[in-house]
Every structure is written in C-alpha cells, then in structure tokens.
Design goal:
mainly alpha, 59% helix, disordered N terminus
C-alpha cells in the first residue's frame, strides 16, 4: 500500500518544480461543453426569424447566441433547412382548427381563408414557406382538406392538386405583398412610385391605368380577400373535368 503524501509537502514540491522550470501551472482541462437543449436552439432561431427575417438566420449566428460553436451546433442540427423545419414544427397547432361546413365549395373557401388568416399573424412563417418545400407537418391537414373538397366539387385528382397550388399562390402572394407594403409604410417620408409615376403623357399607351391613377389607392384599400378567393375558387370549379376532356382524342 503506497504511503500517503503530506498535502503541504506535495503542494510545496509542485510549487518548487514550477519555479525551477519557470513555467506556469498547468491549466485545468476543460470539461464537457455545456449541453444544448433543442428547445433553446429552436427558440433562438425563431426569435431571429421573427425579428430579422430569414436572411439574418445562419448556423453561425444561432451558435453564437446559444453560447457554442457552429461545429457543436451541427451535432444537433444537420443544416439550416433542418433548423427552419424545427422552427416551423408546431406553429400550425397554435391556430385551432375551425368548424368546417359540409358543402365542399364552402369548405374549400373556409379552409383557404383559415390558411390566409393564420399566416397573416405569422409573417416570418410566410417568408420561410416561400423558400420552397419546407412546411409544418401539422399544417398539412389544410392541404388535405383543399384537395379533398376540390374533388368533392367534381375536380379530378390532378385538377384538385393544381387548384390547391393556385389557391396557395394567391394566399402567399397576397401576404407577401401586404407585408412589403407594411414595411414601406413605416417610412412616411419615402417616395411612392406607383401609381404616382403615371402622367397624362402615359394615357396613350396606358389608358386604363392613367385614368384610374387618382383612384388607385381608394380602389385597393377595400380589397376583400374573401371575395377574391371565392371568385378564384368559382373559376377553378367551373373548369371541373375540362382538362380531362381536352386531353381525350375525338372518337368517330
């Protein structure tokens, strides 16, 4: 059994050895890096998106804000797309599903308006969805309902899918435009270009726009998205079966 060293003697010996070599005492080896909680990563990414938008989000930025390195963050999140998917997850659940009418046409309109209203309250989600195939799985019930209601109105599966895409483009495009105009309105001193750029000299080439230039703001302020989406839906349903019929070869 080894003899026990006197604590004082051991400390003195260490100090003497350090003094003799002229070196500094060895630093204590760093322990394991602080554990990263997924909730912290997601919350940080979501805050950046809400406050500054997609362009400001990066793995490096998130790593810095949670107090770690980008390399350490990659052990938890594969890439920026996965990080965006994690931030989207669960957002749809914050808006309770509405009671939907049984009539398929009314159901189609109700789901589309619910989608528009939900996203209008989450502008950062609109920006993320604009990147392409990123989505919250919990929101796919709306896609399912739109496609199903379209088929219930007589659309073929292919027509119903295309109808969904058309409605999504209408919803997303309207929300992107509204958000852009809100941001521009925050600068009251900015120059407004359209329709102010139109003059009497443009009447020959742009007769309708020139004639409506003075009324443009009034005509667009009372834009009713519900009425316009209903008109789009009626137009889509009016084409039920036409694409299939157009693809058929005439028979003798």
């Amino acid at each position: 059994m080894a003899a026990e060293k006197d604590p004082g003697t051991a400390g003195e010996a260490t100090g003497e050895a350090t003094a003799q070599t002229g070196g500094e005492p060895k630093k204590r080896r760093a322990g394991r890096p602080r554990r990263l909680e997924p909730e912290t990563i997601v919350a940080t990414a979501r805050r950046i998106l809400q406050e500054e938008g997609v362009a400001a989000l990066s793995m490096r930025r998130v790593a810095k804000e949670v107090g770690t390195t980008p390399m350490a963050l990659y052990h938890h999140v594969r890439d920026k797309d996965e990080l965006l998917m994690l931030t989207l997850s669960g957002t749809a659940a914050t808006a309770p599903r509405p009671d939907l009418p049984s009539d398929p046409r009314e159901r189609l309109l109700a789901v589309t308006l619910h989608m528009h209203g939900t996203l209008a309250r989450m502008p950062w989600v609109v920006e993320v969805l604009g990147l392409g195939d990123l989505t919250d799985k919990g929101a796919l019930w709306m896609v399912e309902e739109i496609v199903g209601a379209g088929m219930g109105c007589g659309l073929t599966p292919a027509e119903a899918v295309r109808a969904y895409r058309t409605l999504w483009h209408c919803v997303h495009g309207d929300l992107v435009f509204r958000r852009a105009m809100e941001r521009r309105a925050e600068d009251p001193g900015r120059k407004r270009y359209f329709p102010d750029m139109l003059t009497d000299a443009d009447a020959a080439e742009l007769p309708h726009l020139a004639a409506l230039a003075d009324q443009w703001a009034e005509l667009t302020e009372d834009y009713d998205v519900s009425a316009q989406l209903a008109a789009v839906i009626d137009g889509l349903l009016g084409r039920a079966g036409r694409e299939e019929q157009a693809g058929r070869e005439p028979t003798d």
